[in-house]
Amino acid sequence: MLRWAIIFLVVALVAAVLGFGGIAGTAAGIAKLLALIFIVLFVVSLIFGGLRRG
């Protein structure tokens, strides 16, 4: 999931440099959403992994 967030971030940066504002904004929004989902799932896995071992 983090890989997809980075890919969309790169797409947003390239689109912004080339002047495609709408595409850049959409790709940046998707990248933010995917990064947020990744962080939430990572924290949940850390919590449940720690509870399982303890």
From TrEMBL:
Transmembrane stretches, start-end: 29-51
Alphabetized UniProt keyword annotations: Cell membrane, Membrane, Transmembrane, Transmembrane helix
Mode of membrane association: Single-pass membrane protein
Subcellular location: Cell membrane
Gene Ontology annotations for the cellular component aspect, listed alphabetically: plasma membrane
Keyword match Transport: no
Family: Belongs to the UPF0391 family.
Protein name (database record): UPF0391 membrane protein HOC_08312
